């Protein structure tokens, strides 16, 4: 078990490169200010160093609301921001105090999209918890398929891809005219649900015609997990926490 100094005082920290990627991104984004005490506590619990993009992001950034609020990437924000996304500690239900034996169930949730799609980083034994992909690989729980998909990249490549505009093609079939006007004002604790639902044939035939409304992320993720379990008889597992 490494202490905080071992995690922060490293050669070639990733933050200068990552900070440049954020500042030069052509994707619309909002960067949340970091809360240093929370950042250090989260890094200690994660046991990753500041040489990694994950460690550098958690240590130096409060999080990013990307692409007019479509994507929320979790860092270490200050408490009490009603509009911004929560922190990686809250979303993953970190212990209140450092616990050397605690590990996130299934994998570490690193981001959500406004549709309730979940991005998670695989743990050391993904097969043992029913997840596809290899250790350290980023997975996506797709709200239109209600199952996990392995993306074939680690956290650094995933984050770089998003900052370079990868979401535009990835979500091409799930966006509708005027979506930015709907996603931009939403707080980080809310997403959008559809009627007919995204995983239905009716929604796929004419997504822009579907009725939409804002829904708390807790309700949206619970819905996805419950229906995914009902349809596939496989529990997708933990999708993130948005309880107060």
From TrEMBL:
Q: Which InterPro entries match?
A: DUF2625 (IPR021239)
Q: Pfam families recorded for this chain?
A: DUF2625
Q: Write down the superkingdom of origin.
A: Bacteria
Q: What is this protein called?
A: DUF2625 family protein
